[in-house]
## 1
Amino acid sequence: MRPPHWLPWLGPLLAAGAGALAGEYWLGGGFWVVLIAALVCGFAPIVAYRIWKRMHHRS
């Protein structure tokens, strides 16, 4: 089974959502907490797509 071609495009949407949630609920950490949450959640779909694609090519 191939990974969905739209999976990497979820990154910006997830980054915005994670940044908004981190700003709303974890604002005690300030700017850095929001930035780290947005970066991690923004790059997660891209990394997952690459791993899925690499595993698919091996089989």
Note: The radius of gyration is 14 Å.
## 2
Amino acid sequence: MGILDDAKDAAAATGQKIGRAVDDAKDRISDKSDEVKADAEVKKAESDVRRAEAERDATETKNEYKEKLRD
């Protein structure tokens, strides 16, 4: 029975190792997904800032033009 017990122990250890590998892969995928989402949020925020700056600059230019017309 010693060989059968050894085989059962080896199979159990292998199963545990496979289970840990699957969990690690799942965690890595989740981490990468979080990283991609955060990067997308940064890019969106940068785009929003550029858009707001462009709008501000356009408003300043318009106001300067109107001020020159008043003179």
Note: The longest helix spans residues 2-70.
## 3
Amino acid sequence: MSRARTRTAVISAGLTLIAALGGCSGEPPVPTNAIAANPDPRPTADAMLSQVISRIDERGSTRSQIRGSLGVVGDLTADGVVRYRGQQTDLALNGQTRGTGNQPPQRIALSIVDGTGYLQTPLARPAPDKPWLRISPGAGDFGSKLLSPALDQVQEAVDPRATFSGVEKATRIQTSAPDQVDGKPTTRYQLRIVTAQAADAATDPQQRTRFQKAADAGEPELEYQLWLDESGLPAQFAATGQVAQAGQVSLTSTYRDWGAPTEIRVPPAEKIGVFQDVPPQAQRPR
């Protein structure tokens, strides 16, 4: 495969993650002076989210199913597990992306352990005998530079704790109503993170930068939906909106087995590689 085509393949893999799992916004920009002149009448989600995060911490783990549309990239179907260890969140996803037309589905696996990501996809294979690509935040290799910004976004897309921790007071309840998930009673909350307020409130530097960039780009709010079961645990979590690289994106995570034992392993060291620079060749998808 040519150098140019290889670069395109690796970037496509990155865009799949970024487009699938990045923050979504669903409302047009609101002028700053309009916000100042009209105080927000919507209640903050601080108390509700604090209780949700506390219950997530108590259970310590969950299993999930992720389904949705990635716009021009196609559809994503995946199963996942999430494990909470204090402030640390580890996760593993296994599934496939299916493009439009006659394109065959592509397998994708992703693990994040201790903040380091491990990606397996035919579009980004470091070497014939190394199917896993290591993505280390702050590292200088090509793969990490390209894909490490997506790691936090991955966690935020599948994990309400990662999404709202630190910005609970910057989150507003748009509406709430009774609903059902898999036949069980829930309460559905439409939530909006006010990006300018979140940038001020966030203590994590990467989180603060992301919200500030969204606010500067004319995205005053990021939109989410959260379904809580009768015990106050997430039953479902969803984001829908426009993403520049992909168009209309809509993803939903459905949770089950809160507190069930989970095991998330790092791939064997001999199966892990990196792209120090744009790789000279890549394996064609089989």
Note: Residues 132 and 272 are 5 Å apart (CA to CA).
## 4
Amino acid sequence: MSILAQTTERKAVTTLKKVLPYFERLDHVAMTAADALDTTTALNLIRLVIESNPEPKRKPKK
């Protein structure tokens, strides 16, 4: 079952931001061409999700 929302939760975007550096470091390890393509595709998709969900405007503290 899928849970779809009108907007992506901040928790999801925050988690993806935490995972991103691990994907970026994968270019230093040996892997097959197919695996390298898959990880590059995943990296690009994660970046796309992060970029398409900008930081919300915060309300100033009183």
Note: The chain has a mean pLDDT of 87.
